Amino acid sequence: MKKLISETQFDKEFTRLEQDMEWDYDRAQQMKYQIHSSVKRLQIRRVIGRGFSAAAAVVFMFTVYFFIQMPLLEEKSEGTAVTAYSLMNFYEGEDYVNEYSNNLKRTVLTDQGISKTVYPLDLHKTSGIITGEPSIVLNILERGDKKTYETQAFYPTVDKGEIRIHTQRHDRNKDKVYASLLPHEKFPAKSYDLKELSVAGHKAILKTPAENMDHIAPALYVVSDHYLYYFHWENQYGKEHLQITADDVIQVAASLRYNKE
After folding, report:
1. What is the pLDDT of residues 159-213, one digit of tens each?
2. Is the Cα torsion angle 190, 153, 234, 195 positive or negative in sign?
């Protein structure tokens, strides 16, 4: 006779997924991986509770994933709608060039293009944790004849790591974007602690690992008029060698030139 998995076991498994979930685009793919892993552990051939098949469980979990992903996809598509009023527009030949290698296209910013971004190049002269100029990457998202420009920056740090900054374009009310980062009312994640901040006059959220969740990296989110900024960092050598703190990253975030958007 096949061994049954109790509803309690299933609830615990799904609750773990909820706790590990962050409600933003960057975490969507990780959640998808977690769902696949959880389904494998539950072993599809087993029966979950009375009359609740594993097939139904799979459908249920992917339905939840779909409804979580939908607003993220909508927000992503909204970000490609209009670019006319943003100052951060880039022009081929002046601000960037396309290089080709092995049939792969790589967009490279020119000095003029770099100067149009929000990232200060001389931050290492005033910051105690930044050791050099950032590497800056331009991503161009195209839909029809509309283009959206998103950037990434990588600042080298004293611990031989880096502070990674990613942007996501939005054309929504920034208060609504900010609200989407707050804990979910019914399913608040328990894997991190959340603190609301103001960075350079913009609303921000700092997420740090909860107790016994040290495997989760901290993150800072800043919502400006046109972009959502993600700041990620990891200390390279464990707690006994920590040199980068959340306050350090907040200072870096406050140094960005948001008026260049």
Report:
1. 888 999 999 999 899 999 999 999 887 887 788 889 999 999 999 999 998 888 7
2. negative
Cβ within 8 Å of residue 107, ≥6 positions away: 96, 97, 98, 99, 137, 138, 139, 140
CA nearest to 230, candidates 34, 81, 25: 25
Per the document, the length of the chain is: 261
Q: What does residue 174 show for φ and ψ, rounded to 5 degrees?
A: -65, -25
Q: Residue 148 corresponds to which tokens in the numbers above?
A: 């959206």
Closest to 88 in 3D by CA, of 67, 63, 113, 65: 113
Q: How far apart are CA 61 and CA 81, in angstroms?
A: 31
HEC profile of 135-148: EEEEEEEEECCEEE
For the entire predicted model, the pTM comes to 0.66
- 22 three-state secondary structure: coil
Tokens describing residue 124: 């290492």
Q: State which H helix or E strand residue 18 sits in.
A: helix 7-20
Look up residue 1 and give its two tokens.
């006779």
Q: How many whole angstroms separate alpha carbon 246 and alpha carbon 232?
A: 10
| Residue among 239, 179, 212 at smallest CA distance from 19 | 212
